[in-house]
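In this section we walk through a basic example: taking a raw amino acid sequence and producing a predicted 3D structure, encoded as discrete structure tokens. The instruction is simple. Fold the sequence below.
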Amino acid sequence: MSDIVISEFMDEPAVDWLKGTFCVTYDPTLVDDAERLRAACAQARGLIVRNRTQVNADLLAAAPALRAVGRLGVGLDNIDLSACKARDVTVFPATGGNTISVAEYVITAVLMLRRKAWLGSPEVLAGGWPRQRMMGLEVSGGVLGLVGFGAIAQAVAARAQALGMQVAAHDPFLPADHPAWAQVRRCDTLDDLLAMADAVSLHVPLTDSTRNLFDATRLARMKPGAMLVNTARGGIVDERALAQALSDGQIGGAALDVFATEPLPAGSPLAQAPNLIATPHIAGVTVESNTRISWITVENVAGHLNS
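The resulting token sequence is shown next.
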């Protein structure tokens, strides 16, 4: 019988701290076995997950004692918030824990895409010398467009400005008089932003209104040759449309850390897309951020269970 079940990887010192007070089942393989996960949660009062564990009505029904769900990160699309609320289960995201990690990933991706040099390694190691073809662009003086302007996007903006980039953003939910807009150009519409941005980074949740937000029509409205970075959620970008836009040269390059289905299924249209950086949902996962979000989460869950 476990007080707390942890179904995905986290910082082990934080796990050990929990074990000092609670009976803990820490098994990162549970995420891949729904039946074992339901059995493990039968007596659990707390559950800690990342983005892959689906906290839905089925799992909640198997965990009648559950009082708290800790999310090792900030996205909540794998957690049925309505079902949790109906069961009086409190959900705790690790707000702020991975802000620096995601912001640094976005800047790294923009630099890599603009310079093109990352494409050259196999050819150079094989004896080629594609200097002219690998000539890229500086980020200084370019425009970075941010779709959504919350805490992570604001951290990206500060780093981009330090590199000499101009920053514009579109966020209809952030009041026009918010101080965050002081150093950033505020765009009233998404299309206005796309028309001017040399690189676009997505910072919105996956909702009914943002699903396939970047479809073929929206991608065609981007500045020709612009770069696209998605560290937000898979499903915001239409992957088939993006693959086509990359193949056609409409989009100069893309970096995707998130996908509609993770891991990518066989036959994904992205598999043959040129000028694409693909990473396995690790923008917010560094050694440092893993420590931060783990401790934020265990303190939230433990505090709630002890209250």
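Looking at the output, two observations stand out. The longest helix spans residues 287-306. The CA atoms of residues 145 and 200 lie 5 Å apart. In the next section we compare this with other chains.
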